Structure formats: C-alpha cells, structure tokens
Amino acid sequence: MKPALDAKTRVLVAPYSGVIGDGGNYASDDDHEARVRKPLDQWATDHGLELIFVEGVQVTVYGKRGSGVGPSTIPELRQTTAYLDVSSSVIFAARYAAGIDKDKVGDFDYPNATPEAPTPKQVDDLAGKLRDSAVYHAAGRDDPVDARMAQLAKQDYGLTVRIAALPALEPGEPFVDYAPELLKRFPGEVVMVAQGRWLDVAASAQAKADSARDYAYGRYEYASFTQGSPMQDRIGTVLKRLRFLLKDSAYGRPQPQPQPKATPFDVRQTISGLTPWVLVGAALVLGGVGLYTWRRGQAARADAERRAMRRARAYPGGVPRRAPVIPPPPAPDTLQTWQIVLSLVGILVGTIALFVVLRLVGQGVARRSVRDADARNRNEATSARLNKLADVVLHPATPRDAAEARRQADLAGQYVLVLGDFEKATTRAKLADVNERITELQEAAT
Predict the structure, then answer these.
(1) Are residues 141 and 47 in the same domain?
(2) Is residue 225 one of the residues assigned to a domain?
(3) Does residue 320 belong to any structural domain of this protein?
(4) Do 276 and 246 sit in the same domain of this protein?
C-alpha cells in the first residue's frame, strides 16, 4: 500500500463508530458529521494534504479531492468484509488522491481471495452442527446471531433457515464456500454462512438469493461499513428481501396470475350480427304503423257507408229538406294510392339508410379499435424487451476490473432512465425513441 502514497497523502485508521443514535457514541449523524468528518476535512484542507480516513471498513478521502471509496465488485466486497481487508480501497484512494486520471486510477491488481470448495469432512462437520441447531456459532466469532432468527424466519417469512456464523478470516487463509454444499444436505431450505461480515446465501432460487444478499449490502453499505452493524441485522434484511422476490415481483411491476386469453371485442362483427335484426324490427314497426293506419281508414269508410244505407232505408222518398245532408265518403283517389306507395318506398329507403349509418359507425369504431390494439401490442413488445434487458443490465457477469464495473453501473443507470421514459411514452414517436435507446443499451451490454 505504501508505494501508492505520495508526499501529500496521509492515512488515519480508526475503529467502527458504533451505533449512531440513542445509546451510541454519537447522538445523530449530524453529531458524527460535526465531531469527525468536518474537522478532518478542515484539517486536510488547511494543511494542503489529502487525508485517507479508514473508519471501520469505510474509506473516505478528505481534502481538495474529497471522495468516498468502496468495493466495486463482488470479489472486492467479499475480500473487504470476510477478511476485514480495506487494502484495495486504500490503494484506490491513494492513487486518486495523487491525481491519477479517473479512467486509470483503478488500473492495479490486488489479490482478492478466490472461493474454494470445502472438503467432505468440512461439510460433514458443519452440516452436523446445523442439524443439531439451526443457528451455529463457531469459536472466535465476535458478532453472535440470535438463536431465534431461524424461528422468526419461519414465522414471519415462511422460510426454513440454517445459519452458520464463522469468524473473520486471517490474511492468507483460504476462503471456503460452504453454502452450496450445505444446501445439498438441506434441500428446499435457505442456508446462510457468515464469515466475518460477509454473508453467503444458498437456496433453490439461487439468483434471487444472490439478488437479496446484494440488495442488503448495497442499501446499507455506508452504515454497516462505518458503524459495524451486527450480522443479525444483515440476515434480517436479506430474508425480508428474499421473501419479497419469491412471493411478489421486483420493481413494482407484479405479474398477474395466468388467465385464459380473452376474446377481443370486434365492433364490426357485433354490428353485422345485430344489423339484420335492427332492420327487421324497423321494417315491422314502420310497416305495422302503415298497415294500422290503412285498416283504420277502411273501417271508417265502411262505417260511413252503413250509416248512409240506414238513412236511405228510413227515408225512401228522399232525404228530408230540413235534415242535414251527409255526403257519402269519398272513394280512394289516385293521390291516396300514391301516398301508400310513397310510404312503402320511404320505409325501404329509411331501412337502407339506417343500415348504411350503422355500417359506417361500425367501421369507424373498428378502425379506432385496431389502432388501440396496435398501440397495446407495441407497448407489450417494448415492455418485453425491457424485461429481457433487465436480466443482462441489472444482473451482469462479474466484472474483470474497475473500468468494467463502472461501465456496468452506467448501463444500469441508463436502463433506469429508459424505464422511466417508457412509462411516460404516450405517443408513437416517444415509444419509437424508447425502442431506439433500448437497442443502443442492448448493443452496449453485449
């Protein structure tokens, strides 16, 4: 580490701050800021120096080039927490404080421990202890896990858990990856192995178990690195997140239960099926009204004829002069006959016009339905592309170096921005722009 330090860089190493809050060394985060962070930054600035401050396993640079430094890959995180080894972060901080360009500051090699498979004897020994008790503490462990954690996991989250708490590893000691082999001894359960402040999780849904573990470290990294929060809290966060991933869906987009595919509403088919009945009904109504009027006229004329005949029989000599003269009803003339014909023609024309109107309305509504369906299909296709891209961007392969880790982080940030723009894409042009950006992300990710 010393070769990376220049003449204007100093290193100060301090223990964990302890709990910040009631009963802790500092009443609040503001109190810690006022008593530790600000004075150190002021001292470094006043003396024209860069101060690398290690508090617990949190590394911070104070001075003109102030910055926080931490692990950027899973191997670095495992090395820092399992061995309590901050060397990689301090070397990075020293190179950064020396003014090395940000694109090259991470270009150095540090030997992070490579996980090794346990021997059969090691697996037998640890599995036997976990079979006797769901929570096992190895000798030398300074951060015990409450024995009731397994019971609470079953009660609160419905998960059967085995927890092995082992001490932090010494420099040069091999890192043994117990969790996968222990899961074979306890299938269907969740196996958690803590070594120092590192936690391995093994479960049948391994991708979700890793995601839950990584979520816990990412969400509470600064507090746990600085304060030295207990492993018991870390385990609780992982279990809560794992239960969410197993039972619900991440990113606020729950997937519905499978349903039979609904038959889409076809306006044209519906109107085509109803049109004949509408036409028949209209014809019956119009024809019935015309027939009723004609029959009523016929009955009135027949009644008038009967009254005239009775008067003629009553007065064979003629109608009395002082009596009113009632003329016979007029016979149907040519004009009345054509009125009937015109009524029938009107019925036919009205029926045809109604059919045409219904047809036009149906076509208009159908065209709109087609446009809506097309928009839905485009949205669903874009959503499928985003979901597929999420597996690549949000769960990338282990990066080879710091530069690749930063590139993966940039891709994840761009994905979140694209996801937000997709939610706001209300027009076809905006959706096309989102798809272009998805294509760019896919090309960058591969």
Answers:
(1) no
(2) yes
(3) no
(4) no
What gap in Å lies between CA 391 and CA 127, rounded to an integer? 33
CA angle 238, 241, 252 (to 5 degrees): 155
d(CA 4, CA 2): 5
- Name which of 166-180, 283-297, 378-392 the model is least confident about: 283-297
For range 392-412, the mean pLDDT: 69
Overall size of the chain counted in residues? 446
Cα 28 from Cα 113, distance rounded (Å): 36
Locate tokens 């190895």: which residue?
A: 138
Q: Which domain holds residue 131?
A: 120-250
> Quick check: 8 and 49 in contact, CB under 8 A?
yes
Query: Regarding predicted confidence, which is higher, 417 or 356?
Result: 417
Residue 407 host element (H or E)? helix 402-424
> Does some domain include residue 296?
no
Residue 181 neighbours by CB under 8 Å, 6+ apart: 117, 118, 123
Q: Classify residue 178 by burial, with Cβ atoms within 10 Å: 0-12, 13-18, 19+.
A: buried
Helices (H), 168-205: 179-185
Does one domain contain both 237 and 127? Answer: yes
d(CA 348, CA 79): 90
Rama region for 67: left / alpha / beta (φ>0; ψ in -120 to 50; rest): beta
Report how far residue 154's alpha carbon sits from residue 163's, in angstroms, rounded to the nearest whole number: 13
Cα separation, 420 vs 273, whole angstroms: 44
- Interatomic CA distance for residues 216 and 445, integer angstroms: 25
Q: List, for residues 165-224, the tens digit of each pLDDT value.
A: 999 999 999 999 999 999 999 999 999 999 999 999 999 999 999 999 999 988 888 888
Residue 297's CB is within 10 A of a number of other CB atoms, namely 13
In the predicted structure, residue 404 carries a pLDDT above the cut 90: no
Range among 144-158, 322-336, 350-364 with highest mean pLDDT value? 144-158
Name the amino acid, one letter, at 102: K
Tokens 């991470």, residue? 106
pLDDT at 364 over 80: no
Torsion of CA 156, 137, 215, 179, to 10 degrees: -100
How close are the terminal C-alpha atoms of the chain, in Å? 35
Contacts of 32 (CB under 8 A, 6+ apart): 17, 20, 26
What single-letter amino acid sits at 181?
E
**For 219-277, what is each residue's pLDDT tens digit?**
888 888 988 888 999 999 999 999 988 886 545 455 556 666 666 656 556 656 666 66
